[in-house]
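Hey, why these numbers?
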Amino acid sequence: MANRHYDENGVVRMLSKNPFVTVDTVNKSITYSESTGIHTFGKIDYLVNYHQYHARKGNATRVVPTNSEYTINKKLAKRDNKNSFVSSIKSIFKKQ
């Protein structure tokens, strides 16, 4: 098995972004669900074979609660910030 130029911290960081995988670096354990892709299995395989992690299949899905009012307000705030930035840039160029 070839070492694919991974490093442990980078792989753990990549796997932590995946909602179907949970990584416990203290106990060196990985839990993954059925929806895990082939590239993710390669990273899990790297940690298991080279860094003595233990992988097991389980329910590792993370449910993120969505508050529609919060997301709408966040989008509006982002749009307002963008508009104020554009208007400030326009005003700078008008002065010149």
The chain has a mean pLDDT of 81. The chain has two domains: 8-57, 67-96. The two ends are 63 Å apart (CA to CA). Helices lie at 8-16, 38-51, 68-95.
